Amino acid sequence: MSHVFPRHTKAVLPTAVAGDGCYLIDANGKRYFDGSGGAAVSCLGHSDAEVIAAIQEQVGKLAFAHTGFMTSEPAEALADLLISQAPGDLNRVYFVSGGSEATEAAIKLARQYHLERGDSARRHVIARRQSYHGNTLGALAAGGNAWRRQQFAPLLIDISHIAPCYEYVDRGEGESRYDYGQRVANELEAEILRLGPETVMAFMAEPVVGATSGAVPAVEGYFKRIREICDQYGVLLILDEVMCGMGRTGHLFACEADGVAPDILCIAKGLGAGYQPIGAMLCSRQIYDAIEGGSGFFQHGHTYIGHPVATAAGLAVVRALLDRGLVQRSAEMGETLHAALVARFGQHPHVGDLRGRGLFRGIELVADRESKTPFDPGLGIAGKLKKAAFEAGLICYPMAGTRDGRNGDHILLAPPFILSEDQIDEITDKLEVALDQVLP
Ligand code: PMP
């Protein structure tokens, strides 16, 4: 009997024993193509020699030093490298152990920034529906996924949610893409005015929405308008790139494609590429200066922040992404994958939308293409597809609709950036087997 507390207590899972490039191998020797990189984590595949060597070297030299007493070489070097690449005025890096810790820290930093400036009335965060920012209570409150929040609603801080920029589901007939983007962005201004501008501290959003909607980028102009509104009302812009950052969308930072820079940026998954648990929160010089010139102490912290082995892994990962041209490869192979998906499933009666950027791709499934009607959530289409694909040897990330009747089941693909063109065929072949089985 297993003593591990699994996600699904009734599921019987195979035991993963090895990783080989884009594949995971179970105890029976079965190979699975990791088409979702776990959950947009494994950007370098599962057996990157340089990252493994960097971890081994660091753990042999210095495994841990608490950041309350000392900094470490890999943490300093990784922060320098990230800041050398980061957009806008991002200037300091606060390391954490994962995505939820990054978004949680961002919310607290936003609050403390305003306090340091004597703006103590600023306490509201605005976020978006159909978004996910993590599972700890602050992060969960920021997320707008009704299903994930439901059980814990009485425990969550009050965060308001405006519309996402979700063109496939929301854009009106005859409305241009640009006008649509401006319309939904302006919901932020309306909400700031409703709450009282002097009470709003931050707006949080994913540049390309991952775990709730399946790789949904905003339309052109949306984030520029969001940035304008934030600036006008002194509201900090927090971009959550935990899933879509680190080259996943074909840019090292996803917001580069939108032409905006945030005040606070959260990254995780691809930063450690699965080799170590690590996340980070990058903040602007202005925010850092407010703390430094004020109390001089960010009232936050975890035991493992800036962990030497985790930051050594992150450093090796970011170097690999940059030195091996893998961000560009994500952009190019992403186009190839998209073209293959369009060729194979573009006319499928239950495929409503194929979208995404780089190697971050979403397939939205519908009961009816014409009316874009989602499947009845009770049918569990996404879960059945996950199972059928898994049996065929493909790991893909299925998501049930958010059950608010607006977005339906979808599948997320986020393979390692090292995949080959033949492996793109392997993904589409196996996906077709699964789709034929579940939606004949
Ligand atoms: N933000 C986003 C956008 C995410 O996709 C996730 C994880 N799916 C998180 C935050 C939370 O990250 P973690 O699971 O590492 O806590």
From TrEMBL:
GO terms for molecular function: transaminase activity. Keywords: Aminotransferase, Pyridoxal phosphate, Transferase. Signal peptide: none annotated. The keyword Lyase does not apply. Pfam families: Aminotran_3. Belongs to the class-III pyridoxal-phosphate-dependent aminotransferase family. This is Aminotransferase class-III.
